[in-house]
Automatic annotation (TrEMBL):
Protein name according to UniProt: Excinuclease ABC subunit UvrC
Species annotation: Acidithiobacillus ferruginosus
Length: 623
């Protein structure tokens, strides 16, 4: 269901809450399928549910005497209920999933991991196809393979494929402007099509063999390479024959790394839901063309007192709302309403989807492996959570806070002699770094190198946004800097009338060696230096170093982009081709600046009017 349609069902901001009378409301309900939304004070959406029969399902909340504590807590906050009738239960399922993903109601089961997964993309809309990593909408012309559970798994596969087929991975701009082969050609990971080291026909065959291999037709790809090796040998082109031999050997090694499913190959996902001490996990293994691409653990939230069928039902609709759905989903426990779920997923995917609980054979072994991985992920999460709680307790004791913090943020500023300053904000919780909540700020309208003003601007922008969106504020904010930066950060918080955040400046010592940091905290008479082996200092160093890494990465990217921009880009009529022609003709900006009108007109594409414009830009405009 598209976003425009979802908008139809969102409550109007500013609606006035009136006393909710369940009896009167229930008498107006229909018995048709649809979704229901429960709102609290201030029109806050508490819960979204779907029903085959709206009257029966919604009535059960207010007529039954026994409910779980979680449901009772929700019902105590309900000020109104709204329903939306749909044509079918399948349509209700899709609408429910879209609203949950859009609004994150606090009493629905929610997924922590809603990122898009990477795909391997072979672009065929170009005369010399390129192999690359791709996320997001699949609008480009070409072949998409995946999804891969992590970028690291995809990059590893790309390296192996480069060794076997030597397809280019450079972007089109680099490809079109090379005059000699790059390092990838030297280390035998590219065949050098940019400078003619391979013919177009041979490169096209390599692309076709790569696609065959990724589609699971590895035997066909190897046969094709074998035939080309034999043909080269017969023509006494032994160098080419040796290259094809090496390709076949590389493909054989890739095959050894893959366990091919014994159930006819194909595409399917294996989903195992497991629970321990109230924490649920769903482990997803991706099988494409009979090859195991790896797996990922997802930890749903708001899963108190729920059962596996409910967890999987909520998981399937949310997880696949913006991801490719294979034709077969194997689960260790059948979700609630499996037939309706399969129909809803199939209608969104555009093909038939089957949800099955394997009982025997190879698919049962895949399920056992996924369940083992799920339990391992749970145990690892328990250990990580324990370490996270210890970190928060150490910070609470150090800063003498009344309660254990749940959220910690840290700011850092990065620039090169005042050039393109970037501020970073990293976020940590009991689960460790919350990387999807990291933010960067491009510092604007301040004098270059003024770290104090940059810090004040970043802190103000960050918490003004959180206040506006009604999001949670951190209990502790670390500032990479001394008393000056802390004072400006405090000024930003005071301007926003935020008094619930504990600031702490982390100033490096004179030698900038780890362990010599001075802590500047408002209210302390003097800065404090902890022992270099103090556990609390190690926690602070970890958070501060992560903020520094995130800031410097953003600064370098922005600085590189700024330095690639040319003064010529601001001259009307100068595009990429004319810019390159000018730079080649005069050897750089200095040569162009020193050139006269006649010299400029000798360059292809530079007419009299444009030459005058270029000359005026460097002389009249800068006099």
């Amino acid at each position: 269901m598209d976003s425009e349609r979802v908008e139809q069902f969102e409550n109007t901001d500013g609606a006035v809450d009136t006393p909710f009378v369940p009896g009167e409301f229930l008498r107006t309900l229909t018995s048709q399928p649809g979704i229901y939304q429960m709102f609290g004070q201030g029109s806050r959406l508490l819960y979204v549910g779907k029903a085959r029969n709206l009257r029966r399902r919604v009535s059960s909340y207010f007529q039954k005497q026994r409910h779980t504590p979680k449901t009772l807590a929700m019902l105590a906050q309900v000020t109104r209920v709204e329903v939306v009738v749909t044509h079918t239960e399948t349509e209700a399922l899709v609408l429910e999933a879209n609203l949950i993903k859009r609004h994150h109601p606090p009493y629905n089961i929610l997924l922590r991991d809603d990122k898009s997964y990477p795909y391997l993309f072979i672009e065929t809309g170009h005369g010399t196809p390129r192999m690359s990593l791709h996320r997001g909408a699949q609008k480009g012309k070409g072949h998409y393979f995946g999804p891969y559970p992590a970028v690291t798994a995809l990059r590893e596969s790309m390296v192996l494929l480069q060794k076997a087929f030597r397809l280019r991975t450079c972007d089109d701009h680099t490809f079109h402007h090379r005059s000699r082969a790059c390092l990838q050609f030297q280390i035998r990971r590219c065949s050098g099509p940019c400078v003619g080291h391979i013919s177009g026909e041979d490169y096209a065959r390599d692309v076709a063999d790569t696609i065959r291999f990724l589609e699971g037709k590895s035997d066909e790809a190897i046969r094709s390479l074998g035939a080309r090796m034999q043909a080269a040998a017969e023509q006494l082109d032994f160098e080419e024959a040796a290259r094809r031999r090496d390709q076949i050997a590389a493909l054989s090694k890739i095959q050894e790394r893959q366990y091919v499913a014994q159930a006819g190959g194909g595409d399917f996902d294996v989903l195992a839901a497991a629970q321990e001490n109230g924490q649920w996990v769903v482990y997803v293994s991706f099988i494409r063309n009979g090859r195991h691409l790896g797996g990922r653990s997802v930890f749903p939230r708001h899963t108190e007192e729920v059962r596996a069928p409910d967890v999987l039902a909520a998981f399937l609709m949310q997880f696949y709302s913006d991801k490719e759905v294979p034709g077969n989903l194997l689960v260790n426990v059948l979700p609630r309403s499996p037939a309706s779920l399969a129909e809803a997923l199939g209608s969104e995917a555009g093909h038939r989807v089957m949800i099955d609980q394997p009982q025997r054979g190879p698919r049962k072994r895949w399920m056992a492996l996924a369940l083992t991985n799920a339990m391992g992920a749970l145990r690892q999460r328990v250990q990580t959570a324990s370490a996270g709680r210890r970190r928060m307790l150490l910070l609470r004791e150090l800063l003498e806070l009344p309660e254990t913090p749940q959220r910690v943020e840290c700011f850092d500023i990065s620039h090169t002699r005042g050039e393109v300053a970037v501020a970073s904000c990293v976020v940590f919780g009991e689960d460790g770094a919350l990387k999807n909540e990291y933010r960067r700020f491009n510092i604007r309208d301040i004098r270059g190198g003024d770290d104090y003003a940059a810090m004040e601007q970043a802190v103000h922008r960050r918490y003004a946004r959180l206040q506006k969106e009604g999001l949670a504020l951190p209990e502790i904010v670390f500032i990479d800097g001394g008393a000056g930066q802390v004072a400006r950060a405090q000024a930003a918080l005071d301007a926003l009338e935020i008094g619930c955040i504990q600031l702490c400046g982390v100033a490096k010592g004179t030698t900038r060696r780890p362990g010599l940091e001075m802590l500047h905290i408002p209210g302390w008479a003097v800065p404090r230096q902890l022992d270099d082996d103090d556990p609390a200092l190690l926690v602070i160093q970890e958070i501060r170093d992560e903020a520094h890494r995130f800031a410097i990465t953003g600064h370098r990217a922005r600085r590189g982009k700024a330095r690639q921009e040319s003064d010529l880009d601001s001259i009307s009529g100068i595009g990429p081709k004319r810019r390159v022609a000018l730079l080649r003709a005069f050897g750089g900006l200095r040569g162009i600046r020193d050139a006269g009108m006649e010299d400029l007109q000798r360059v292809e594409g530079i007419h009299l009017e444009l030459a005058q414009r270029i000359y005026d830009f460097f002389h009249v405009g800068r006099a």
